[in-house]
Design goal:
265 residues, mainly alpha
Length: 265
């Protein structure tokens, strides 16, 4: 059962959250803080959904625990990684592109935009909360997929951090561990998380929330994820071209034979 009233209230909560985060970004002169709050938005909207539905079964409780685990890890990691680093290079490029008065424009092109995206992606959550069917084997599969996604992206982030923390690796390309099987294993983990939540929504009758994982997949592969990060990376790190030729972009797979022998990437 789809509760339109709860879903609309969730949208209003996300709009307010986006405005508050924007105000903080104006004070700090750093819009990249939105990355730290992205996962938090889903916790906010989940709480709003929970408060405004008549009752929530065990499926909703399990989903809430998994969502909190995902959001805590992702938000905590991004905040820790960016602490004291200043505004991210990607957002500096956007700032230059939309100046003057970027401080005002950023409210719409970054914060409200991300709030709307979070609202769309959150559709499986309200389907899960309002579903009244008993937990099925599909729920167990969904839990495994979500858990795998959280663990996989955690491993990817940890391995990349260890690699970057070694001065001798400056300018090199990380192609070890899970990064050997795809160029963006952290994004693949995120992909698994949201397809897992969709499977849980399907188990509760929310097949119509398919737009959520489709939008998330598009963002990860074609918009703000792989496509954006790799738009100019070869210019900055020429050896990355070899990594592209030998390694899958998104879905993990066996390494293709390198085109250039004897050159470490």
């Amino acid at each position: 059962m789809f509760d339109l009233n709860a879903y609309l209230l969730g949208g209003y909560a996300l709009l307010l959250s986006a405005c508050l985060i924007w105000l903080l970004s104006v004070i700090k002169k750093d819009v990249s803080i939105v990355d730290s709050f992205w996962a938090v938005m889903f916790v906010v909207v989940f709480v709003v959904y929970f408060i405004n539905v008549s009752e929530m079964g065990s499926r909703g409780l399990v989903a809430g625990v998994l969502l909190l685990a995902w959001a805590t890890r992702l938000s905590g990691y991004i905040t820790w990684r960016n602490w004291g680093e200043g505004e991210d290079r990607r957002y500096q490029d956007i700032r230059r592109k939309y100046s003057p008065h970027f401080w005002l424009k950023s409210l719409f092109i970054i914060f409200i935009f991300q709030g709307i995206l979070a609202w769309i992606v959150s559709m499986p959550l309200i389907a899960i909360i309002t579903g009244s069917t008993a937990i099925t084997s599909l729920d167990h599969i969904a839990i495994l997929v979500i858990g795998f996604g959280i663990i996989y992206e955690s491993i990817a982030d940890w391995q990349l951090h260890k690699f970057k923390s070694q001065p001798s690796n400056h300018g090199k390309v990380m192609d070890k561990g899970v990064w050997r099987f795809s160029r963006h294993p952290n994004y693949f983990g995120e992909f698994c998380v949201w397809w897992g939540f969709y499977l849980m929504a399907v188990a509760s009758g929310g097949w119509w929330s398919i737009i959520s994982p489709l939008v998330m997949s598009f963002l990860l592969m074609r918009f703000s994820g792989v496509a954006l990060l790799e738009s100019d990376i070869v210019t900055r790190r020429p050896k990355y071209a070899e990594y592209i030729r030998s390694t899958n972009a998104f879905f993990p797979g066996l390494r293709r034979q390198a085109f250039t022998k004897g050159e470490s990437i």
